[in-house]
Amino acid sequence: MAKIQESATRPAIALTIAGSEATGGAGAQADLKTFQAHDVFGMVALTCIVSFDPKNEWAHRFVPVDTEVIADQLEAQFAAYTPDAVKIGMLGTPTTIETVANALAGASLPNLVLDPVLICKGQEPGAALDTDNALKAQILPLATFVTPNHFEAIALSGRDSIESVDDLVAAAKVIHEKSGAAVLAKGGVRLAGPDAIDVFYDGATLEILSAPKVGEHAVSGAGCTLAAAVTAELAKGATPIQAAKSAKEAVTAGIHARVSSAAPFDAVRQLNR
Ligand code: PXL
Q1: How many Å lie between the centroid of ligand 1 and the Cα of residue 166?
Q2: Is the distance from the beta carbon of residue 89 to the nearest atom of ligand 1 less than 6 Å?
Q3: pLDDT digit string, tens, across residues 40-78
Q4: Is 223 near ligand 1, meaning CB less than 6 Å away?
Q5: 222-260 pLDDT per residue, tens
Q6: Ligand 1 pocket residue status of 27, Cβ below 6 Å
Q7: Whole-angstrom distance, CA of residue 104 vs CA of residue 146
Q8: What confidence tens digit (pLDDT) does each residue in 162-177 have?
Q9: Where are the domains of the chain?
Q10: 22 C-alpha vs ligand 1 centroid, how far in Å?
Q11: Which one, of 88, 106, 79, lies nearest residue 47 by Cα?
Q12: Is 53 within 8 Å of 13 (Cβ atoms)?
């Protein structure tokens, strides 16, 4: 196959290794839309397919993608491109985690953003505890940036609870010590008070990022979009703290512009940045 002999461009390139959330609020769909909104060329390696069940209180129906198919996608992607940044979203099973860890070990990646999806909105915490240890052991050590939400910050830091900004700071510090990664720990609507507070800590810089809460309800895809925006900004050359700040602004705007859904949670909308 001959290529057209005109100058091809090399934009910033990002890959998300994530699950499909069919209604488009979260998961790979949110990631790809976010990459586009940040003017980054995006790729998706699909790890699983989640279909909410409206007949059963919108519970998650979860189907993993065959591990060989996951390895094939990553093989094609790393052969075609060297992404400037990679995001890891929902992996879902210990077998998937092993497959992804093996593929990443062979790629030299400057930015690996881990959104440690242990549970989604409305899911029972217990459902995910078997993936917890595999994620900690095999993926966390590879990450350069981690974006735990409230529940995941408790799981990764080993704390009993996170109820205040001080607790969130302490958790972010523990997760940094364990991983060596920059940490953006998200309080979101889970901490009491008028503001949605996230804590950034990378071993040198500690910053409290704050924006007025938009209602008291979590919006589907906010966490995915935040981590994908961090990934896109890192792909374009931002420093970790710059990426965290501009991602927080992007998500706050996306929550204001949220899409009204008949599901129990509205969906974040990715606006061009
Ligand atoms: O919001 C976390 C999330 C990530 N990835 C997939 C999901 C969800 C939540 O529903 O379905 C595929």
Answers
A1: 28
A2: yes
A3: 999 999 999 999 999 999 998 999 999 999 999 999 999
A4: yes
A5: 999 999 999 999 999 999 999 999 999 999 999 999 999
A6: yes
A7: 16
A8: 999 999 999 999 999 9
A9: 13-256
A10: 10
A11: 88
A12: no
Ligand 1 site, residue 19, Cβ cutoff 6 A: yes
Rounded to an integer, what distance in angstroms lies between the CA atom of residue 94 and that of residue 79?
25
**Ligand 1 atom closest to Cα of 223?**
1
**What's the full length of the chain, in residues?**
273
Distance from the CA of 224 to the center of ligand 1, in angstroms? 8
Report the separation in Å between the CA atom of 15 and the middle of ligand 1, taken as the mean of its atom positions. Answer: 17
Residue 212 alpha carbon to ligand 1 centre in Å: 24
Q: What is the CATH number of domain 13-256?
A: 3.40.1190.20
